[in-house]
Design brief:
By secondary structure, the protein is of the alpha/beta class. The protein has a single domain, classed as 3-Layer(aba) Sandwich (Rossmann fold), CATH 3.40.50.620. The protein contains eight helices and six strands, in the order βαβαβααβααββαα. α2 packs antiparallel against α8. The longest helix is centred in the first third of the chain and has 14 residues. It is globular, with a radius of gyration of 16 Å.
Length: 197
């Protein structure tokens, strides 16, 4: 059974930790594909800070040299909040003979109990977990039996940190793809934390 791995998120903006996760998943699990699914509006957020079209364009730039990936606009086309169980079910309907998994960070693993319909999700799907530094996973952590772990730890960089660096006119190549950074500057994105669409 082939593996289809779903990578959902705001990608506001996409940064190097996202890309590293995709590269490591390709190496560790040899999926038939990794599908990046940018959210129209993530369930845990009130807004995004870059318009949907810009977030997609930044993903295209960042992913252009990564094998085995594609961008799917399923969630954006719904134009409303979409929950993970809905996205997973959608891709299961697209690939009924394959196993559908979702990439999450180990910080998200610790909060899975708060996800909508989590019992349904863990019954039907598994997670690929990227271990983040300073996030402690113990044998008592819930849902471990539904997880595959990427061996290498991922830096604790967040899109919020990236937006703050952009506003302070700082570019750190270990955090952000240079072409993505240029796109942000050229399109005037993240000049203020309040410049949400």
């Amino acid at each position: 059974m082939a593996k289809i791995i779903v990578f959902g998120g705001s990608f506001d903006p996409v940064h190097n930790a996202h890309i590293e996760m995709a590269e490591l998943v390709n190496i560790s699990f040899a999926p038939s594909k990794i599908i990046f699914v940018p959210a129209f509006l993530a369930p845990h957020k009130m807004c995004h800070f870059a318009p949907a079209a810009d977030r997609v364009e930044m993903l295209k730039i960042a992913l252009k040299n990564i094998p085995n990936v594609e961008i799917n606009l399923y969630e954006m086309k719904q134009e409303t909040k979409i929950y993970s169980y809905q996205t997973l079910d959608y891709f299961k309907s697209c690939y009924p003979k394959d196993e559908i998994l979702m990439i999450i960070g180990s910080d998200a693993l610790l909060s899975l109990s708060t996800w909508k319909n989590i019992d349904y999700i863990v019954k039907n799907y598994r997670f690929v977990v990227a271990k983040r530094k300073d996030v402690v996973i113990t044998p008592q952590t819930k849902f471990l039996d539904r997880c595959l772990f990427i061996d290498k730890e991922i830096d604790n960089v967040s899109s919020t940190q990236i937006r703050n660096l952009v506003r302070s006119k700082k570019f750190l190549s270990n955090y952000l793809n240079k072409e993505v950074y240029n796109y942000i500057i050229n399109h005037g994105l993240y000049s203020s934390e309040n410049n949400n669409p």
